[in-house]
Specification:
- This protein is α/β, with parallel strands linked by helices.
- It has two domains: about 300 residues, Rossmann fold, CATH 3.40.50; about 130 residues, Isoleucyl-tRNA Synthetase, Domain 1, CATH 1.10.730.
- The protein contains 19 helices and 16 strands.
- Strands 3-2-1-12-13-7 form a six-stranded parallel β-sheet, sandwiched between helices. It has a four-stranded antiparallel β-sheet with strand order 5-4-6-8.
- α12 packs across α13.
- The longest helix is centred in the C-terminal third of the chain and has 29 residues.
- It is elongated, with a radius of gyration of 26 Å.
Length: about 500
């Protein structure tokens, strides 16, 4: 869907999924939240008033069980891991407008209000149920969801458990046609097409009502069901509500109207979340008579040296460690340019180091050093427009807008790096560092004009970099404005 309506109102809503707080953050979620952050920053450059949401999902059996196994108080357990995800904001230099926790009282009240509205619409009922439950997914599964070993494909190291109890159910089956109508009306509802086709097939195959509660006596860690304290909400019904509770819904009608109704909501999610985000959540919104999301953009997984990340294998990549070694902007750069925005990608420490040295230390960093050394040494006056370095040039903006509308962060950075390569080639071809030493005043003037051009174009590049590498962008602008000989932007790693 387009942002036409949002641009008229000048509002934009962007959200990540809420990571489950049963472990420290890994590089896979760092990818998602960095992608969302870049879009939020870019929309602000375009003049939108942005609401960028992230946070943590803190209820459910998996957390309750893990806390009990470790002999820890459940709230203190989730507090610890929630703080780790909040620390990621600083580590990666992110710019969210809210960090919501599903244990927040305001969120609990909003989840209960959503439940009431779905119930009033006749879409919640109670029945005895017996089925298989994947604790890893926090979802009931059917035989067709399982692999040949009778396990969930995403959690093949654990058997689903058999559950028999009286639960509340959501009439998901009622929303097969409304969901298909939504998909037909909005042909870019899910990005990329491969994932959109996947969810279409899932809905076309028929929808089964799903359980939305657990018996509190067996699993008390959740939001109480309105009017029935003996049941707590199923974690997905609770967690998905965060997308509107973060806006202060239902009390804050203005915020909800600006950002959910007029703000063309864009949700970032991993490929294992498509059923929940693009079908279950949309059906819940329809039941509560709230507008649907605008778009779901889906990224793949990051594998490590060809293998899926797993604590049991010991190959989980810690984004904090990468930031400590390379810097926030270097990690952002790698995730945005060298990880495919929609398909699975492979990560290795060796490749990260090679790319860092080649493209940042020897590439951008070396260029900035060469140019600003000339600028500081040659006594050149450059008229810096007060908007330069902040406002992206029109031609550049048009190119970046097209690529960003397609979520091609990699190609957007390819475009910027092509401009960096152009400046390198310009220096090689024109050799201002030689001309400046000439006895010919015309050649000296030519050298000064060449350096002035380089400085102004580097200022443009700094503006283009600002959504992607904000610290680097700010440092380049500072160096140019102060006309000083800088320290290297990126130190080589041996």
């Amino acid at each position: 869907m387009s942002d036409t309506q949002a641009s008229n109102k000048n509002y934009k809503y962007i959200t990540t999924t809420l990571p489950y707080v049963n472990a420290d953050p890994h590089i896979g979620f760092a990818l998602e939240i960095t992608q969302a952050d870049v879009v939020a920053r870019f929309k602000r450059l375009e003049g939108f008033e942005v609401f960028f949401n992230t946070g943590t999902d803190e209820h459910g059996q998996k957390i309750y069980q893990k806390a009990n196994d470790e002999g820890r108080d459940t709230q203190k357990y989730v507090d610890h891991f929630a703080s780790r995800f909040e620390e990621l904001i600083t580590a990666l230099n992110l710019s969210p407008d809210n960090f919501i926790r599903t244990t927040d009282e305001g969120h609990k009240k909003a989840a209960q209000e959503l439940w009431r509205r779905c119930e009033e619409n006749g879409d919640i009922y109670k029945k005895n149920f017996k089925g298989l439950y994947c604790v890893g997914c926090e979802m009931y599964v059917t035989e067709k969801d399982l692999n040949d070993n009778g396990r969930c494909p995403d959690h093949s190291d654990q058997d689903p458990i058999e559950v028999e109890e009286e639960n509340y159910f959501f009439r998901f089956s009622k929303y097969q046609k409304p969901l298909l109508d939504l998909y037909e009306k909005h042909p870019d509802f899910v990005i990329p097409d491969k994932r959109f086709n996947e969810i279409k097939r899932f809905v076309e195959d028929g929808l089964e009502d799903f359980s939305i509660s657990r018996v509190a006596e067996k699993m008390p860690w959740g939001v109480p069901v309105p009017g029935d304290e003996e049941q707590v909400m199923y974690v997905w019904f609770d967690a998905l509500s965060n997308y509107v509770s973060t806006l202060g819904w239902p009390e804050d009608k203005e915020g909800f109207n600006n950002f959910w109704i007029e703000g063309a909501p864009t949700q970032f999610a991993g490929k294992d979340q498509i059923r929940q985000q693009a079908a279950m959540w949309q059906a819940m919104l329809m039941s509560a008579q709230l507008p649907p999301s605008n778009q779901i953009t889906v990224h793949g997984f990051i594998n490590v040296e060809g293998k899926k990340m797993s604590k049991s294998i010991g190959n989980v990549v810690d984004p904090f460690d990468l930031v400590d070694e390379y810097s926030a902007d270097a990690v952002r750069y790698y995730l945005l340019r060298h990880i495919n925005p929609v398909e699975d990608s492979d990560f290795t420490v060796k490749k990260m180091k090679e790319i860092y040295n080649a493209n940042l230390a020897n590439g951008l960093g070396n260029l900035v050093s060469r140019m600003t050394n000339m600028y500081a040494s040659y006594d050149i006056e450059v008229a810096l427009d007060q908007n330069a370095g902040t406002v992206i040039e029109e031609e550049d903006m048009q190119t970046l807008q097209k690529l960003m509308s397609e979520y091609r962060f990699d190609r957007a950075l390819d475009y910027i790096w092509a401009e960096i390569a152009h400046l390198d080639a310009f220096i090689t071809e024109n050799e201002p560092y030689k001309l400046i030493k000439s006895d010919d005043t015309d050649q000296v003037e030519e050298a000064k004009q060449a350096v002035a051009y380089l400085v102004l174009r580097l200022y443009d590049i700094a503006a283009m970099l600002s959504p992607f590498m904000p610290e680097t962008s700010a440092e380049i602008k500072r160096i140019i404005e102060s006309a000083e000989k800088p320290e290297p932007l990126f130190q080589r790693r041996e």
